[in-house]
Amino acid sequence: MTESSSHLDFERPIVTLEKRIEEMEIQAETDGLDLSRELHNLEEKVEKLRKEIYSDLSRWQRVQISRHPQRPYALDYIGRMLTDFTELHGDRHYGDDKSIVGGPARLEGEPIMVVGIQNGRSVEERQMRNFGMPHPEGYRKALRLMQMAAKFNRPILTLVDTSGAFPGIEAEERGQAEAIARNLFEMSHLPVPIVVAI
Q1: Which end of the chain is more exposed for a tag (fewer CB within 10 A), N or C?
Q2: What does the record give under GO molecular function (predicted)?
């Protein structure tokens, strides 16, 4: 990825064509020209190029996409896929870990419980979300939501996007390992379906 843009190096041909389309749209509007045919051809070319590039990515290019700063995070997916989402907060023991978001929602009209790991786009938001690394209270919040889903017989959708649990001393003092282990144990006994998207 270059320093000056948020586009990856292998996306450069697509970006070049998209800039050309943008320039032509401005020119058409400014000069009152009908460039719809040319614009349509360029847009088709962009789609074809996009399919070609993304259908044959190297392993490293896939890693670059997974780390892209503009990739969607949990709240982006929730906002686009789900309706009637109500975010619930806190673990009922210590506090609210903002790196874990979740609550009841509807997927195509069906009630579900969603739990996701949220990162941030700005430095301030990343710090608030602890860079997407949950503390023990985040795991306890997730468990509370999953147990609530079991109580109300709702399937669970989890959206995982993390570099791992927060490795700080304070997290270990508050029971990080136990919180993770309890989640795994409890999840294996929940009577509702769990779908995990990574």
Answers
A1: C
A2: acetyl-CoA carboxylase activity; ATP binding; carboxyl- or carbamoyltransferase activity
Q: How far is it, in rounded angstroms, from Cα 167 to Cα 134?
A: 9
* CA dist., res. 182 & res. 176, Å (int): 10
Largest CA distance in the chain: 68
The number of distinct structural domains making up the chain is: 2
C-alpha triplet 195, 197, 198: angle, nearest 5°: 145
Beta-carbon contacts of 111 under 8 Å, excluding residues fewer than 6 positions away, are 104, 105, 152, 154
46 and 99 fall within a common domain: no
Q: Which H or E run includes 137?
A: helix 136-151
Whole-structure pTM over 0.90, yes or no?
Answer: no
Cα 179 to chain centroid, rounded? 23
pLDDT, tens digit (0-9, with 9 covering 90-100), for 13-42: 999 999 999 999 998 888 888 888 999 999
84 and 171 assigned to the same domain: yes
- Residue in this structure with the two tokens 């088709």, named with its chain if needed: 44
Cα separations (Å) of 143 from 52, 64, 140, 187? 42, 31, 5, 8
Rg of the chain, C-alpha, whole Å? 22
Exposed / middle / buried, residue 137 (Cβ in 10 Å: 0-12, 13-18, 19+): buried
Both structure tokens of 7: 């586009």
Q: State pLDDT tens for residues 153-185.
A: 999 999 998 888 888 898 889 989 999 999 999
Question: For residue 133, is it within any domain?
Answer: yes
